[in-house]
Design a protein that fits this description.
335 residues, alpha/beta, Rossmann fold, CBS-domain, 2 domains, elongated
Length: 335
């Protein structure tokens, strides 16, 4: 606890010192995770993994400022593939305890470990929950002593000039909760693809959209055969309005591509004889391609790197599945 003189001195500190205090608290937490707290952290992660394996859930609870952090931790767990829900301690004793099933793992958050609402709930949690993990600033508290695993979130001082308002302590709780969620997802082999499936909306969902969801396919995909005469090639390109056409075998195996630029160069070179060629004679046999399951953001990066406006989308066996045009990415607000 800081002395009155130290607290008075803090009344005149720069606003940036509030941030530095919280940063130092996070550094202290990192040092504990590198040291004495690491075994308990790994045990907590193992319990959460076991709950997911059993198809149980993680229930996160806390009240006041700790409750706000508990909501965020539950949301981060869900976002990274771990079924989790927030339970308000006061509502729990008025019926919401029904969301807790036998075998679920509970995470409680309390700076003091003596939060009245949580202590009232404690006997029910011990009876119903499989395991109890507590993030607490007082390992000797009643809540901590009743828990299976305790993760120390103590801080040397709050950022509050009076050392009263939960500030640094809630920041530490939030960071530790994020670390738990991320380590669980890492051990489960959570991938970008899994993340994309849980985030279909908003800008994040747009960034993680798949090429296969955006491409022109079927009748909308321009395609000709290698023996197609140039007048028909030009007609196909004009009709599909993508500024290019694929050149395919009958089984849709990709042979090449013809772009507007290829046509201009052909006319400059051959003049009136340009229309006497076939698609196979003037096509680019090595067009830039991308796979169906690639991310839209990867497609955009490839277009920018190659300075092109279209990509041919292919399957693993080299068959053309569709065409992705730069215009298709504009709706995703990636450009």
């Amino acid at each position: 606890m800081m002395s009155d003189a130290a607290l008075t001195a803090r009344d005149h500190t720069l606003p940036s010192e509030f941030v530095r205090i919280e940063a130092r608290s996070l550094l202290e937490l990192a040092m504990r995770l590198d040291g004495a707290m690491l075994p308990a952290f790994h045990q907590a992660v193992s319990l959460l993994l076991e709950a997911v394996t059993r198809q149980n859930r993680v229930i996160v609870t806390g009240i006041g400022k700790s409750g706000i952090i508990a909501r965020k931790i539950a949301a981060t767990l869900r976002s990274t593939g771990t079924p989790a829900h927030y339970l308000h301690p006061a509502d729990a004793v008025h019926g919401d305890l029904g969301m807790l099933s036998r075998g679920d793992t509970v995470i409680t958050l309390s700076a003091s470990g003596e939060t009245e609402e949580l202590l009232r709930l404690l006997p029910l949690l011990k009876r119903l929950a499989d395991k109890l993990i507590t993030l607490c600033g007082n390992p000797a508290s009643t809540l901590a002593q009743a828990s299976d695993i305790v993760l120390d979130t103590s801080v040397s001082t709050e950022a509050c000039p009076h050392n009263l308002a939960p500030t640094a302590s809630t920041t530490v709780m939030l960071a530790l909760g994020d670390a738990l969620a991320l380590e669980v997802s890492r051990r489960r082999g959570w991938r970008r693809e899994d993340f994309a499936e849980l985030h279909p909306g908003g800008r994040l969902g747009k960034r993680l959209a798949r090429v296969g969801e955006l491409m022109h396919t079927g009748d909308a995909m321009p395609h000709v055969g290698p023996a197609t005469p140039m007048p028909q090639v030009i007609y196909e390109m004009s009709r599909k309005k993508l500024g290019m056409t694929t050149v395919l075998m009958e089984d849709r195996q990709l042979l090449g591509m013809i772009s507007d630029g290829d046509l201009r160069r052909l006319l400059e070179r051959d003049g009136g004889q340009a229309l006497e060629h076939t698609a196979g004679e003037i096509m680019n046999p090595k067009p830039v391609t991308i796979t169906v399951d690639a991310f839209a953001s990867s497609a955009l990066a490839l277009m920018e790197e190659k300075k092109i406006t279209s990509l041919i989308v292919i399957s693993s066996n080299g068959h053309a599945e569709g065409v992705l045009h730069l215009h298709d990415l504009w709706t995703l607000e990636l450009i």
